[in-house]
Structure formats: structure tokens, C-alpha cells
Amino acid sequence: MSGLTKKAIRDSFIKLLNEKPLNQITIRDIVDDCGVNRNTFYYYFEDLPSLLESIVNEEFDRIIKEHPTVDSIEECLDVIIDFALKNRKAALNIYRSTNRDIYEQYQWRICHHIVTTYVDGNLAGRKVSPDDRKLIIDYMTCVLFGFNTAWLNNGMVDDLQSRFHRLYELKQGELEEMIARCEIK
Amino acid sequence: MSGLTKKAIRDSFIKLLNEKPLNQITIRDIVDDCGVNRNTFYYYFEDLPSLLESIVNEEFDRIIKEHPTVDSIEECLDVIIDFALKNRKAALNIYRSTNRDIYEQYQWRICHHIVTTYVDGNLAGRKVSPDDRKLIIDYMTCVLFGFNTAWLNNGMVDDLQSRFHRLYELKQGELEEMIARCEIK
DNA sequence: GCTCCGTGCCTAAAAATCAGACACGGAGCT
DNA sequence: AGCTCCGTGTCTGATTTTTAGGCACGGAGC
């Protein structure tokens, strides 16, 4: 049952992704790196994008599992930044490739999930219409995602954490204010 | 061709060896740890001792490969101590088990090999009978091995390196003296 | 006595990996 | 326009690896 080969392929791919951009990586590169037959690749994955997607989905599941709830805005940031930094070069190499959309989709899902658990935590015991709840979540996700995208576009050189922190200072209480405004008494 | 499962079994074994003594580790423990069928263990290894032996042999080959020649007595010590410390707990757990002899055999082989390359380096260009050469090597191996055994028996708490160094100070020039005495002019 | 557990071994089935081929299309070169 | 090289995606059939399940034996504990 082991799935060791699948993992080996994934690991080799990530390893190569830390060395060069996605569009310069061939399937042969990957199977050569982990010493596996080329057909074995196709046994497990449809093609290269689906390999990327599977890695990204598993990473997503792992994060969800590790963070069923998020208590503070700081924790939101930590999770998202930690994810981006974990394979810094790989992230950039994906992001800069022609398949950027895959990474963006993933990034969005992470942001959205983390924000959702955070907002829902603050909404506990209060009445807010589903539409308003969705609006709040989308708004905050956009902010996180936008900052993150800018950061990536900028080569991840800024201290994203402190920029977020400053933003949080400037807009402190915004979430509470939004909730209060649309709360159904 | 990959051999990933074999490696997984080895890794799990070493992992468990860092947790508990050898004679408390069952084959089921190992296969459970790496999520592999019990029969798969027997597919690759005869039994538990032969798994241990195979790990030990590979480690031996690795050390030989990395140290084709040894130039100084300090390097001797470094190699041997480094080996013992690399999986400190595992080494102790093997050593303290009923299969201690396996570890001792291995330790002896390491010592013997390292000493041999060192002595042969000093013998280059000089004529000494094969018997004398063997005697010198065995003598030095005994010293290294004996110190090491005492260290292990003592739970590896002493600073073996400094003890060796002191011994080297006390007996400095001994190798040269021995060689000179049996040199054939 | 008994039971429980680990070992070692076996067989047959299933899953995974392999070698080797093929057609297709793009890129670079003449 | 050719042509060649290379990567992709697909297929077939052989081979290797891994699995499930059973069985006999022996030691430890009750």
C-alpha cells in the first residue's frame, strides 16, 4: 500500500522546482531524479500539471487539518506566510511559470479557508445573514490574497509579516465594526 | 528498481532503535511503522539480525568510501567517534541488547579499517615484514577498540575524544618507534 | 494444562514497475 | 518546403513487488 514511489516522484519534483522554473522541468527530469521508469509517472499522474495539483491539494489538506480553527489575524498571517516560505524558491518558480494560475488558485484557497475559520470564530453566537458573512470573508480574503500576490510579484523580498501587522494596526477593529453593522439583533 | 520499500524498512528500524533496545523491537513493529506488509519484510530480509547486518554493512561501505586513506591519528578518532555518535541512542540500544556481538564486530571492522589505512600511510616507502605490519595494526586497533568499548559500557558519557588525545600525548611517537624497530634496512 | 504472541514459511492473487514500442506536435536548422 | 531532435501521451505484455491469508512451531505468562 505504501505509496513510496508516488512520494518519491513528488519529492523529486519539488526538489527540481527549487532549482529551476516549472516550464523547464520535464517528466524525464523527474523520473531520472528519483530513478523511476517514465511509465511509472503516468501510472500515478495524468501529466505534469496534475502532479503539481496533487501536491498542492495535499498541502492544502494538511494545512486544513493542522488549523481547523484560526483564532487571531496574526495566526492567519503565520499560516499563509509559512506556507509560502516553506518552499520559497519552488513557490516562486511555480508562480513565475506559465502555470501561475495553479499557484494562485491554491493561494486563494488557503487564504479563503484560513480567513473563513477566523471570521466564523468571531461570528460565533451572533446573527449575521449568510450573504453578509460571505461578503466579509471575501473582503478579507481579497486583502490577504492581494498583499500576498504583490509580495510574490516583488520576489518575496519585503517583510510581509510586518506589512500585514501594520495594516492590522491601521484597520484594527474593522472586522468587529463590519460584524456590528450587519448584525441582526 | 527503486528499493524505496527496503529503505523505508531500514529507516523505520533505525527510528525504532533510537526509541528502544533491539530485543524489544519486533518485526511487526517495523512493518507497522512504515506501513508495509509483514511478508514484504521477509521478501527483502531473512530475519531481524540480517536486517541489522545489512544496515551495518552499508554504513561500513559508506565510511570506507568516504575515507579511503586516513592521515592522522586524530582523523582516526574523528571517524570512529562520529560513527558512534551519529545514531547515539541506536548504537547504545544495539550495544546493550543481546545481539551486542553484531555491533562489536562492526565497531572492530571500522577501527581496523581506519587504523590500517593510517598505519599503511606511515609505512609508505619503508620495508616491514607482513607479520610485523599486521601486529602493529592489530595492536593499535585493540587500543582504539578497547577505549571505545569501555566508553560504550560507560554509556558514552566521557569525552572520548579528549581521552584519546591524552593517550596520544602519552604515547606519542609510539607508532614511529615500532616501525623503526622492525624496519628492514 | 492453556492461551497469546512472534516467528518463519508457503501459495496464490493483486498491484506496481518495467522495457519497448508507436504517433503526434513543436522547435530548431538547412 | 523539407529534416531531425526531443518531449509528450498512450499502449501492450512481461516482470517484479507487494499483498492477504493461512499454517506450524516455540517461548512466555497464566
Q: What is the overall silhouette of chain A?
A: elongated
Strand count of chain A:
0
Q: For the residues shown, what is the average pLDDT of chain A?
A: 77
The pair of chains with the biggest contact is:
A-B, 9 and 9 residues
Number of domains of chain A: 2
Distance from N terminus to C terminus of chain A (CA atoms, Å) equals 54 Å
Q: Which quaternary structure do these chains form?
A: homodimer
The number of helical elements of chain A comes to 10
**Beta-strand proportion of chain A:** under 5%
Along the chain, the helix and strand elements of chain A come as HHHHHHHHHH
Largest sheet of chain A: none
Helix content of chain A: over 70%
Give the uncertain stretches of chain A in residue-range form. none
Over the alpha carbons, how many angstroms does the gyration radius of chain A reach?
A: 19 Å
Q: State the secondary-structure class of chain A.
A: mainly alpha
Q: How is this structure best described in words?
A:
The structure is a homodimer of 185-residue chains. Chain A has two domains: 1-45, Homeodomain-like (Arc Repressor Mutant, subunit A), CATH 1.10.10.60; 47-182. Chain A has helices at 4-17, 27-34, 38-44, 48-66, 73-86, 88-95, 100-123, 130-153, 160-170, 174-182. The mean pLDDT of chain A is 77. The first copy, chain A, contains ten helices and no strands. The relative contact order of chain A is 0.11. Chain A has 185 residues and is mostly helical. Chain A binds a DNA duplex (30 and 30 nucleotides) through residues 1-2, 5, 26-28, 36-37, 39-40, 42-44, 46-48.
